[in-house]
Amino acid sequence: MTIRGVALFLLIMSTPLNGILPILNIGELSRDGFFYASILYITAIMSAPSAWPKLVHVVKSTPEFLMVYVVVVLMSTLLNYFNIETNQYIDRSGWGRFVSSSAIFGYYFLLMKVILVHVRLDGYKKFYARAESAFIFLGVLLVLLSAFESLGWFFSPLAKILLAIRSSFVFDPEVSSFRLSGVSLEPSFNAFAMLSCMPFVYARRRTTGSRRSLLLLFGLVVCAVLSGSRTAYVGLFIFYAFLFVRNFTAGRSATSATIFLFTSLVFVAGLLLPLYAFDSIGGGTSVSNVTRSYLAAAAVEAGFDRIFGQGFGQVSFYVVQTIYSQLIYSWELRDYFYGARFGEFPPLFSWYARTLGEFGLLGYAVVAIAYARALRDNAAMSLRDARLEVGGAALLAYLLLGEFLAIGFSIDSVRVPQFWLAWTFMTIARTAVAETSPSEDQQR
Prior knowledge:
The chain contains 19 helices and two strands. The protein is mainly α. It has a domain at 64-94 and 251-435. It is globular and about 60 Å long. The chain crosses the membrane at residues 35-53, 65-84, 104-121, 133-155, 215-245, 257-278, 315-331, 351-372, 393-411. It comes from Rhizobium glycinendophyticum. This is O-antigen ligase family protein.
């Protein structure tokens, strides 16, 4: 295997490694194994002299959603200029937060382009074969690890072995009984990694009819259910709901309309669930759920506070001011103000809430419509063109975009592999269509 192949394999295998012991002091990225693997990957790909001209070429092709998203970011920044200018929390400034948020987005945008360079260097079929094999290997590994961990629920020596393994690289090695954490910080992130494998396992089953792929897909579903993660349940529902809509609804126009409607409903649910969870807080609500509910609901409130939102990266300033009077309800909230996490911005636990808080209702609607259009277009391409680099890539993009909709209910960032891999495969499909000559079309 080439250096590029090894680097891609390591990048994919790092997907579950969220919450590792920090290597660099770089804020929220410091505990993300995928980030460190991405540095090695970018270095390996761009070390080839022929890669740089291709990087210039692939920068020209950017999915419509990302262009819309960047425009919304710029508009929210301009319209909230004075708000950003005055934002301050301990040693964090509004413009500092904008720069850090933009830098993270820009870095993962660069990673997407470097993956496209890799495709140009090796050819899509070779690249895809390696990516699919790596995700299938990861899926097998996660199922085996889940089996080992579940046995540890009943045999303490096995649980101690897993704890010793996790202690060597995980920031918080303790795990909850009857919930699968694997090598991730918590069950949700472990489930995210399982979800990331499913589109590739499904694609292998679809193209080869392999029974082993079907068995692996079933194993991933069972392990995701046993993870005890509500996000995993939502992810499984959305994954198979999108498959059903694509495969079984009658007619492409009906399929497109259903996908657009379903995506829109997910974005509506992304706003309603934090508010519902906040209203449902009672005496028996766990501290973790209280914290999540207050923070996500405050982010939603931030979006309605200003017609154009708070500005890109600014919603946390509003949240820390709003929840100050609610610290008595959660020791985790107090910890952000007075304890070990003093001076840190609390996570918002919802990409939907953060997006509304940053861009306001109008910006949120624009992002939702652009996302729904992307899903609809990928579904159409996956049905229309049987070529691996078009229909196959579009199907992967479609399923990965659906998975991110589920993950967005639990995290507040686009800094997850599914999001960027989705736009990568969408670009591959669109580029392949654009580069097909008229003579090739006639032959087909």
